[in-house]
Amino acid sequence: MKNIAKAPVWDGPIDEAGVESLLVLARKYRAYDDKGRYLHWHEFRFRPTEDDRKVAWWAVKFARLQLLRPIGLAAEHGKSFLLCMPDPMQRILHRIDRMCPLQDEELFSDEAPLTVNRYDKLYYLATSLLEEAITSSQLEGASTTRRIAKEMLREGRQPRNKSEQMIFNNFELMQAVKENGQNPLSLELIKEFHRIAIDKCGENNAVPGELRLTDDVYIEDLEGEVFHTPPKATLLERRLERLCRFANMNHDGEGGEANFFLHPIVKATILHFMIGYEHPFADGNGRTARAIFYWHMLKCGYSVFEFISISRLLNLAPLKYFRAFLYVEDDDFDLTYFVAHQLDVVDRAVQGFLDYVKEKKRERLEFTSQLKSLGAKGDFNYRQLELLRSMRKHPGKPYTAKEVAFDYNVSANTAREDLKRIAQFGYAVEAQVAGTKERAYIALAGLPSGQSDLRRAV
What we know:
Blueprint: H1 16-28, H2 41-44, H3 53-65, E1 69-74, E2 80-83, H4 87-99, H5 104-107, H6 118-139, H7 146-155, H8 162-179, H9 187-198, E3 219-220, E4 226-228, H10 236-248, H11 264-278, H12 285-299, H13 311-316, H14 318-330, H15 336-373, H16 382-393, E5 398-400, H17 401-408, H18 412-424, E6 428-432, E7 439-443
Antiparallel strand pairs: 1-2, 3-4, 5-7, 6-7
Helix pairs in contact: 1-3, 4-15, 6-8, 8-9, 8-12, 9-12, 10-11, 11-12, 11-15, 14-15, 16-18, 17-18
């Protein structure tokens, strides 16, 4: 990532004509552009304009100053972090809220518009945990392929290298986040998330669960350029305690310790940013930061985020992610840059998940219809139907109870009963896994002979 163009600062008095020009432009320019984007000077300087670019930029800054406010957190040298919420960002938040049922029962119920159920819930949960574990690790440099990572987690085998260990740890981390979703944030919990994240795979002499003790830490982008030097190690414990107090405050705007409103998604994003800014550990800060984002979302009732991976989208455009961090510190600690970037990511992640759910429902209905048209009658439950659909896609593939249990987030006994049921009606045959005591079920092609009537299936 090439160095960004530094935002020009107000460089002293200007003549009367300049003042008049600025006042005119202040009525012309808003905090965001015509496409709703909150642009940094690095991007703004290329915007077509008939006006002097620097004066136009100062006009934009003037519009932002009317909206910016401190949030109660400060940089190392005391300068306040600021935030504004212009209309385009408010619209995104409203859209996300409309898409996100606060209770997953509203999504995973027979009465829900998408008509998915608890079996789908378990399947989507396992899928999303896997996706977030893989892509969050890839953001930090893990190079294991998705196929190998899935096989490792499905088979329950031990990681064979550092990349696999990172993915294994992130899978464990996301489960720990869910387990602690209703607990307050504390220094101990931050350390625990970090301990899980870098166990057996830390770099830079990082100790799992321990704050860094030195100041020889700086943040590089993917091309090795330094773009942030974090606060001194001696300040970390006090600063993190302050961050925890901020995280645990009630920001509903109805009084109390925090006397202003912060939308839960915005607050989760700020926590994400602040862990990156503080950089309290020698390694694993990004994974810990994203875990804390999820922690806050679940704590505030956005349980649908159990099923949504933000790292998948961050991994598609990592330079934008890094630049969003950089813009904040470059332009007077204006957090709006990072919040705007993350809102776009969350918006697309939620919409992508809902589209995925709809597509899975369509595929299931289509598959059920195909079975009936071929003479197969009866009712498999949703999980068994999904498993059967997978088997018909992959004839000859062996399926074990351990792998099915992982894929559908159920016990091995439940998975084994599902496989036996499918084999009972002739869609698979049971076989011994070579060299083990484990049994596998081999998917067969086509409809089983003499078994077109499946009315006995539950």
